């Protein structure tokens, strides 16, 4: 049975300052409502991270993510760990899916999925390293429309 609770406001907290549109995060190291860990699992700490975004005129839902930790972390460090996880998601996986349509790929046989994943990541790194202004999608379109730009992209590979 899983019990769901809220980050306790009386526990030691770390709150991240943000502007009006960006997400606010709060971490707590006190999760007394969580049942003890099952036998055989070395767990040092339970932690929760609340994320919410303040926007004018719209109530935003609070998203609470819970972490079972094998090391002791301060609430400040816990926020850093949570942000780092989403940085990876936003800088790699989301871009691969949206810009390079990775989820729409139909290659399923033998090593084709792994080979195409490597090619997509190489292409993404090449597009990111190119000094031209614009988003990844814009650079892809520009390379398709302009052979000189495509040649400069391929010449930029090191």
Q: Summed up, what is this model?
A:
One of its GO terms (molecular function) is transposase activity. Helices cover 39% and strands 16% of the residues.
Describe the structure.
There is one protein chain. With about 160 residues, the protein is an alpha+beta fold. The protein has two domains: about 15-95, no CATH class; about 100-155, no CATH class. Helix content is about 40%, strand content about 15%. The chain starts with 12 loop residues before the first strand and ends with a helix. It holds the Pfam family DDE_Tnp_1. This is ISAs1 family transposase.
Task: List strands and helices in order, with pairings.
Elements: E1 13-15, E2 23-28, E3 45-53, E4 63-69, H1 75-98, H2 112-129, H3 136-145, H4 147-155
Antiparallel strand pairs: 1-2, 2-3, 3-4
Helix pairs in contact: 3-4
Instruction: Quickly count the helices.
Output: 4
Q: pLDDT average, as an integer?
A: 75
How many domains, in number, for the residues?
2
Shape: elongated
- Strand portion: 15-25%
Poorly predicted tracts of residues: 1-13
- Which range best describes the helical content: under 10%, 10-25%, 25-40%, 40-55%, 55-70% or over 70%? 25-40%
Total beta strand runs: 4
> Helices and strands, in N-to-C order?
EEEEHHHH
Radius of gyration, Cα only, in angstroms?
Answer: 22 Å
Largest beta-sheet details? 4 strands, antiparallel
Q: Which structural class do you get from the secondary structure elements?
A: alpha+beta
Distance between the termini: 53 Å
Main sheet: strand order: 1-2-3-4
């Amino acid at each position: 049975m899983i019990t769901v609770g809220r980050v306790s406001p009386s526990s030691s907290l770390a709150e991240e300052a943000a502007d009006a549109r960006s997400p606010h995060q709060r971490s707590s190291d006190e999760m007394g409502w969580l049942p003890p860990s099952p036998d055989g699992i070395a767990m040092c700490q339970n932690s929760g991270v609340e994320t919410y975004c303040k926007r004018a005129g719209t109530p935003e839902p609070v998203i609470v993510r819970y972490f079972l930790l094998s090391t002791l972390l301060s609430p400040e460090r816990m926020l850093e760990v949570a942000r780092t996880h989403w940085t990876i998601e936003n800088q790699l996986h989301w871009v691969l899916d949206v810009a390079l349509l990775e989820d729409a790929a139909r290659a399923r046989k033998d090593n084709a999925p792994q080979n195409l994943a490597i090619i997509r990541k190489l292409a993404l790194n090449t597009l990111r390293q190119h000094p031209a202004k614009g988003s990844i999608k814009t650079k892809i379109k520009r390379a398709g429309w302009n052979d000189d730009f495509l040649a400069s992209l391929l010449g930029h590979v090191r």
